[in-house]
Design brief:
elongated; mainly alpha; 73 residues
């Protein structure tokens, strides 16, 4: 897959990831997290707010891979 197409697909995947993550985090925060101790709530909010970076980094790494050079035989 050429890099240009990977960037298009990766951009769409990133948008889907951010929307899905935000909805999932919001549902968890409204449901279970509100019943926890304030210190655990803080940890949960920090984790929910920052863990989306890991899959996003994998997508960006995949998007930025250079194209394979054709074999000259």
């Amino acid at each position: 897959m050429p890099q240009r197409l990977r960037k298009l697909v990766g951009t769409v995947l990133m948008l889907v990831l951010v929307v899905f993550w935000a909805l999932m985090a919001m549902a968890l925060a409204q449901g279970r997290v509100t019943e926890l101790h304030w210190a655990l709530q803080t940890v949960c909010y920090v984790l929910l707010g920052s863990l989306w970076v890991l899959p996003a980094a994998l997508i960006i790494r995949w998007m930025e891979r250079p194209d394979k050079k054709p074999d000259r035989t």
